[in-house]
Write a structure and sequence with these properties.
Shape: globular
Number of domains: 1
CATH class: Mainly Beta
Number of strands: 33
Helix content: under 10%
CATH architecture: 3 Solenoid
Oligomer: single chain
Length: about 400
């Protein structure tokens, strides 16, 4: 019934080449009209507008900082805007600013001052910013130390065509406003992870962002695409994570949450996935979950080639207020995939629910387990907005075009 009722004009984002960063063009399609339509976004006065006239949208992250035309001076306000399980990630809020001025000269063993690698291994908290547009091609994975923010606002910042970011056995990391793409494996090399330690690394997976035994992590307003392995993978007991306002496209295995079905440390994993735009060319694992607790809330899915949300080993999945728009292929309408080798239908006891999700173009969610709300307490991290309001809440996922002296 929803499909026939809402089958009117829908505005979606298409990826187009635009310099070094993706940009978006609005095109009309026959689908849901209440998802993303920039021309109908209202500002804080209730007036319709676009560009700098648009301000508060109902997005609880962006509304706390994007209306400030002096955001550059007040950059660290961002650290207090997090939501979900990763809301306590402060990054480098309590430290100094560090300005990256050198996009080259990547020395994994003895990082050069002025480079991103030099900044992220320091012992003290740092809020890392950039002095110009940069494309950074790393020689080995970028291994981060605790209490760091990478803040790309104001410039076009890319990490691409080399190994990318590893967050291993550290905490309090914020990554914001970076375009991460075409990441590849590397390794069997000495890489410095702290100022006082460098060690031999094995071969990395080729993830865009790899979380390994990490906690209090927030990844916000990044654009990710076309990496060798995952775009964002979280394993080995990583927890207290929020992945929000990102734009992801053209990738196979998008997000893996959990190391192995028998790795019990992942039972404590709690991840919030909110306000993301899962765009064209995504196949599966959006995300794939194991053992832990996953709050998937107010995202837009514009098609998948295998499945959207999957899992094994009895994860708890709380899907709320999302929009799922299936492709026209009649064989891939199902949102979910319960991964099990058992023939006794054990997956029917796993607690997966769809609460207030909007299913379009024949999409359907196979729920399981108990429907009692209390069962999902450990997989609840924020208040879900109605799916019909996502046109207001998600006007601009991915990297923002923030100009100094103007609202983002």
């Amino acid at each position: 019934m929803l499909d026939s009722y809402f089958l009117i004009t829908f505005i979606i984002f298409l990826f187009l080449p635009c310099g070094n960063l993706p940009c978006y063009q609005l095109v009309s399609c026959t689908s849901f009209s209440h998802v993303i339509n920039r021309s109908s976004i209202k500002d804080s006065t209730g007036q319709t507008g676009t560009g700098s006239g648009s301000c508060r949208t109902g997005n609880p992250i962006d509304d706390r900082w994007r209306c400030d035309s002096d955001w550059e001076t007040n950059r660290k306000v961002l650290a207090d805007c997090g939501v979900g399980f990763g809301r306590n990630a402060v990054g480098g809020r309590d430290g100094e600013f560090y300005v990256v001025k050198d996009s080259g000269n990547d020395d994994p063993q003895n990082p050069v001052p002025g480079t991103l690698r030099y900044a992220v291994i320091q012992e003290e908290p740092l809020w890392i910013i950039f002095n110009q547009d940069m494309t950074i091609q790393l020689k080995e994975e970028l291994i981060m130390n605790s209490y760091k923010t990478i803040d790309g606002r104001g410039f076009s910042i890319e990490i691409s065509k080399g190994p990318c970011i590893t967050i291993q056995n550290v905490s309090n990391i914020i990554i914001h406003g970076v375009y991460i793409h075409d990441c590849v494996p590397a390794g069997n090399a000495v890489v410095r992870d702290r100022t006082d330690h460098a060690g031999l690394r094995g071969v990395s997976d080729g993830d865009g962002i790899s979380l390994f035994g990490a906690r209090d992590i927030w990844i916000d307003h990044c654009t990710l695409a076309n990496c060798y392995d995952g775009l964002i993978d979280a394993v080995y007991g990583s927890t207290a994570i929020t992945i929000s306002n990102n734009y992801m496209f053209h990738h196979n295995e998008v997000m893996l949450m959990g190391h192995r079905d028998d790795f019990l440390a992942d039972m404590k994993m709690q991840v919030t996935i909110a306000f993301n735009y899962f765009g064209e060319g995504l196949v599966q694992r959006i995300p794939r979950c194991r053992l832990g607790y996953f709050h998937i809330v107010n995202n837009v899915y514009t098609g998948w080639k295998a499945y959207a949300i999957g899992g094994s080993a009895n994860p708890t999945i709380n899907s709320q207020g999302n929009v799922f728009i299936a492709s026209d292929d009649s064989t891939i309408k199902e949102v979910t995939k319960h991964v099990t080798s058992s023939v006794d239908n054990e997956w029917k006891n796993w607690n997966w629910r769809s609460d207030g999700d909007l299913m379009m173009n024949g999409a359907y969610f196979t729920a399981s387990g108990q429907a009692t709300p209390g069962i999902y307490a450990k997989a609840s991290s924020m208040v879900a907005r109605p799916a019909s309001l996502l046109q207001n809440i998600m006007p601009s996922p991915g990297v923002l075009s923030c100009k100094i002296g103007q609202q983002c």
